[in-house]
Specification:
- It is built from 18 helices and five strands.
- The protein has 460 residues and is mainly alpha-helical.
- It has helices at 2-47, 66-81, 92-95, 102-118, 136-145, 150-154, 157-162, 171-186, 199-216, 230-233, 262-270, 288-301, 305-311, 317-343, 346-375, 391-405, 423-437, 445-448; strands at 53-58, 85-90, 126-130, 191-194, 224-227.
- It has a three-stranded parallel β-sheet.
- Residues 409-418 and 438-460 have low confidence and may be disordered.
- The longest helix has 46 residues, at 2-47.
Length: 460
């Protein structure tokens, strides 16, 4: 009986602890949500003094696929035509975070520009330019690099994903989110169209904007992410519907590129993975392959999904694939022809990009002058406002002095800031150094080397 009562008491204590733990977690989540809501309201209040400005960028890394076009460029065109102040950038400086063939990179820049114009972006309504032609991007990027911390960058998952298969990791791959923040902040953008995988980079931009505003006074709006079309985000690989459509897919039949010839598009869709059921339905969790074709058909024809499914009731999936292929070919045909036309007139393409770069420079130069003046850079006559140096800097300086007093063999790994995935190399290097130092036994010069008596000169 006593053992049973003890078991009951133990169980009751465990249940009480579990309830208390759950209550504390709920309380913490509630506090976090409340804090985020208050921060959002404060940001919205501060942003009221800034005009609505949209900025987004795209890397020139080969042909766009159907998901890129429906998810990004179509949305960009809608924003442009709604009368918003929009700025779209081909971010070629981001491309070189991994090795590039110079000739191919240049061709990709032209192809991306031609694609953007062919998809409906108008240089008279939008600012369209190449990132490296506006040097202020790099200037602000360096300024923000000096404000950001390695710990803050270490939380971003993209670095871990992209560096997983690299032996020697370029520094640019680690710090490129800071340059991305500079791209946005340089134009004081209030809204940034991005995919869900880029939300943490937008949060970094918000973080750096708040740091700068706190130190040097209100300068930047706190930008908001505009999530890309959710339907377009649901466009999956034709060969593996569990994955998103991607241009890096090793299976060339998995992705529809917008410059694919009609016969190639038809062949890819005919080979698309579906299932053994012949009916056409939209059930993403049960029938992802057929549902993927329904989404594509809906978006290229601008028809609601329910209506697409209703019209396909009388045909099986084999015939439905041909209907989808015809709709995709018809939708992409004028875009493909327009891209080819732009690429045949590169002089005109360069002129349009230079016109956009000039518009971008006017805004960028004005903003970078304001930024430099506030932080004390340059040779402006006006003296910037004095601020107190953070106590963190003083403690860092004293720590540095202490480290300088240590002997070379006394270096400690935990005292160093090490980029992720490079700690192991540092440990190996330190172990090798210590081994080399211990190869020879320590000895005193006076004990091991003595002058023979015959060599001592007699003093008369």
């Amino acid at each position: 009986m006593r053992r049973l009562s003890l078991q009951k008491m133990t169980l009751a204590r465990k249940v009480s602890a579990m309830i208390l733990r759950r209550h504390l977690m709920t309380s913490q989540v509630s506090k976090s949500s409340t804090k985020e809501a208050m921060q959002s309201k404060q940001d919205d209040k501060e942003n009221q003094k800034y005009p609505r400005k949209i900025f987004s960028g795209i890397q020139p890394t080969g042909q766009l696929h159907l998901g890129n076009y429906l998810g990004a460029l179509q949305k960009w065109t809608e924003m442009q035509n709604s009368g918003d102040d929009v700025c779209y950038c081909i971010v070629d400086m981001h491309s070189i975070t991994i090795p590039q063939n110079p000739a191919l990179l240049r061709e990709n820049i032209f192809e991306m520009a031609a694609t953007m114009f062919a998809c409906g972006l108008n240089p008279e309504k939008s600012t369209i330019y190449v990132q490296s032609t506006v040097k202020e991007h790099a200037e602000l990027g360096w300024i923000l690099n000096c404000m950001c911390t390695m710990a803050r960058l270490g939380h971003l998952p993209q670095f871990k994903e992209k560096s997983r298969n690299l032996k020697d990791i370029p520094l640019g791959l680690y710090v490129y989110p800071v340059l991305q923040a500079a791209d946005i902040m340089l134009f004081k953008a209030t809204h940034v169209p991005v995919g869900e995988d880029q939300l943490q980079h937008i949060q970094l931009t918000q973080h750096l904007s708040r740091i700068f505003n706190t130190k040097y006074g209100a300068t930047f709006p706190i930008c908001h992410a505009v999530i890309e079309n959710h339907d377009a985000a649901r466009i999956r690989s034709l060969r593996n519907p569990s994955k998103k459509m991607s241009k890096s897919d090793l299976d060339t039949k998995a992705t529809i590129n917008i410059r694919d010839p009609p016969e190639v598009i038809v062949e890819k869709i005919k080979k698309a993975v579906t299932d053994f059921t012949s009916d056409v339905t939209y059930e993403p969790n049960v029938r992802p392959g057929v549902s993927n074709l329904v989404v594509i058909h809906s978006m290229v024809t601008n028809t609601p999904i329910d209506k697409v499914v209703e019209e396909a009731k009388s045909i099986d999936t084999g015939r439905y694939k041909l209907r989808v292929a015809d709709a995709v070919v018809e939708h992409l045909k004028p875009i493909r022809l327009a891209i080819d036309d732009h690429l045949q007139r590169k002089d005109e393409l360069i002129q349009l990009l230079e016109m956009g770069a000039e518009k971008a420079r006017q805004v960028a130069q004005e903003n970078i002058v304001e930024i430099k003046q506030k932080i004390g850079l340059g040779i402006f006559q006006t003296i910037p406002q004095s601020i107190e140096v953070s106590s963190d800097l003083e403690s860092t300086t004293s720590t540095t002095k202490e480290n300088q007093e240590q002997q070379p063999g006394e270096m400690k790994i935990e005292d160093m800031s090490i980029v992720p995935k490079q700690k192991l190399r540092q440990e190996k290097k330190l172990n090798t150094t210590q081994t080399q130092q211990n190869l020879a036994p320590k000895f005193k010069l006076k004990d091991s080397i003595q002058t023979p008596p015959s060599m001592v000169k007699k003093v008369s």
